[in-house]
Amino acid sequence: MTLAATQAFAEDKRPNILLIVADDLGYSDLGSYGGEINTPVLDQLAQQGVRYTDFYVSPTCSVTRSMLLTGTDNHIAGLGNMGEMTAPNQMGQPGYEGVLNQRVVTVASLLRDHGYHTYMAGKWHLGLEQDQIPHARGFERDFSLLVGGGSHFDDAWNVEWQIPKAPYTEDGRPVEKLPKDFYSTKAYTDKTIQFIEEGRQDGKPFFAYLAFTAPHGPLHLPNDWLRRYKNRYDEGWDGIRHQRLARMEELGIIDEGVNTADRLWFLPRSTSLAPAARVMLGRTMELYAGMVEYMDDQIGRVFDYLREIGEYDNTVVIFISDNGAEGNDLRGMLSGRVGSLGFLHAMNNFAENGHNSIGRKGTFAEYGPAWAQVSMAPFRLYKGLLAEGGTRSPLIISGPGVKGVGELNKDAVLHVMDIVPTLLELAGVQHPSTYKGREVVPMQGKSWVGMLEGRTQSPRGPGDWLGWELFGNRAIRQGDWKISWHHEPFGTWDWQLFNLAKDPGEQYDLSTKLPGKRQELIALWDEYVKTNGVILGERSPFEQASKGLPNPVPEFDDYPPIRGLEAIPYEKLKELLGGKTKEGR
Amino acid sequence: MKRPHGYSLFWVLFSIVILLSSSAPVLATDDGARAYWKGREGTQVFAFSYLRWDINAAGSLQFDPAHYIYPSSDIEASLFLAMWGRHFTFFNRPSTFSLALAGGNVDVDVDTNVAPPEFLPPGVVPGSSFSQSASGYADPNVSFLVNLHGTPRLKSNVDLLNYEPTWTLDAQVLLSVPIGEYDSAKVVNLGLNRWWGRIAFPMKYHFGVFSRGYMSSFELIPSVWLFAENDGFVGQTLKNDPLWQLEAHLTHDFTTSFFGSLDVLYRTGFQSEINGMEVGDDVEIGNVGFTFSYQVTDNVSLRTSYLSNVFGDDNLDNSILKIMFAYGWNPANENAKKLMEGN
User: Fold this and answer.
1) Among A92, A157, B8, B66, which has the minimal tally of Cβ within 10 Å of its Cβ?
2) Measured between CA atoms, how close is A11 to chain B, in angstroms?
3) Is the pLDDT of residue A467 over 90?
4) How far does A182 lie from chain B, in Å, by closest CA?
């Protein structure tokens, strides 16, 4: 930490902090990252601040959130595994409590103790017990969804049958009933504005954690937003993905000529699908895009309010996603087999999935791996996995003291653990070694303040490295090099080596070519395990993945040959198949 | 994590499209609920209905668009209605062409003390009673329906998937050809011995989600029936004023395969004139009833409805029970099913 920098921020009025987290938002969804989704508010934020290309999170939400709020590794903070997925041999082990444990202190607790108002609205997912909820972990005011997800409407069903109704708390007390017109994104925005408004009289700065549950499945939207992107994605995932990649090159997010990920090997080329299939499959992406734009719109409300009360220019805004876009079949996983309690839960709450129904109350639509790979362009795979597609997130920072307005930083390798040290430095707060009589672990993240002030390009040097482990999958990144280990068929049940500078799509395993480099990084993995107390689970949700999916094969643009078809514009193709032939379509 | 879902939605898509396109309109003489819902171009429907009419008339009344009801008469009719319809696109508008053929038998008992002498069959004198019956085919009709507002062309499954109607307005023209059974010596016939037809403007408002299991609609069908002269009515000339009709339905899906409807049918007009002299009074009949429809398979649906007069002229008791079997198909979807079933 640089004291000068701390003083620069702390001498005057300390900045407010608005930490905005999207849930399952993809890397390339925002306009400022190459996406076609209309996100004018966040795009403007990017123009007023700085975007970063190499910002890492964990591949799932609660794991990321444990690091986001404590600045240390998830295996230490209590989320060594997602609570819901804890393996038998991890049960009862330190770091595997499945909730935020008492070895860590949250940034909210520290900021509250040092003169900040601390507010939270949105998803918690770090514990349900009275001493684990936001109110107990540093937030003065909160309106929180305690679990990982559920209906975005007032019916409030939880994604998991074990707790059929999603528990919400407000200021530490259970919320008995949500209002009829409840829609998560708007409700969290309203509460954030309300908390700031009600607390601003005393002139203290605030730390507001706005943790949207959008665009996490189920893909839900208010009725008047359902058809906002009608037919926008009929073109199919390949075309949209190519357009995004082109825009990412234009914006400089990716370098020209780098290896981007192939279309996922188990998905068909979208141009090989009949128009009606594209419409059907595109509708889920329409909902997703609508949720992202709606969230952007609501963020705009918060910014407008801050401008109205004259606090916008004194607010550091950080926008991130919590993990890669969701490509897993969460609904299928949660609804279980016929006759199970999961099935009963699904039957009672989200059985309806008609093509005109999805997106409304009582439905559970997801957009699946085909669109998740678009959201995660140019990377490979998606949420839950340790390929770049599971762990890369957009990051936008704006506010007082942030230099390089409008720039894109491609040099910094950043991690979600860095956010707590950054916020503490901005607020002039030291991380303690004990908190309320208990020892707390030190932070592992590195403050970005020097980078934000333009004194360095990255908080990390060439020797610094990052590590991940979740569900038995594992990865290490040092500089441009990355090793990863995945269950088949996502990996090889062995370490693979990639050069991310040339191959961000992780297409070419260099293990055989550069065994020495691979070995170097494996040694770092061993260090990571030792430092963080990693216990590889004896069970993993991905252990049987190879039975459900074929082995990967490289994509060849011209194989299988469907020559000529791709040259036909989509509208023409639709007309041809829709009107002039009798074939099924 | 469970394996990602790849193609499963694809098959969901097909099943949805099949269901939608087989919910084609079934045109019947008294139309019925959801008769004007649109199907994909090329969808065809065959419907066979059985109708049981029981009518008890206390005064001088007329009932059906073509049939005079004798005062103080009892009428029992067992009729069938066979209909074939096809959806197509006409000048870029979704349209339906249909043919209908009716038949069956009608038994009438009349007290001639009450019946106007002009209506009595030859040889029947006032003060007695007579019975007549008729059986065979009635006049077939042909109908053309075109949407004017609210429904885009439905040429493909893409169009169906994008179809979420709110207000719709159609126009219908129906023409009946006088080739049904007719005996000019009888007052009871199934054919009418004259040209007749109808002009209708069906309109509906869809509310709720336009998805099976959630669809609801309010349907209003104003129409007028028009009749040419019958110059062979027991040696006399029968003329009728237009018959004005308003039909309404409030329909709602109870499940994905079962819907119900509250039905109202109001008719007025149809003043009769025999040899230039007015006979009897205007019709004013208000029937109220209900319909239940069950989609048995993708192709087959069964429907039953019941109507009885509850307002209008109280000199007429009538009830109509209808049971309908309908089979709808679209060649493209039938081919898709063949492929999915591995044939």
Assistant:
1) A92
2) 49
3) yes
4) 19
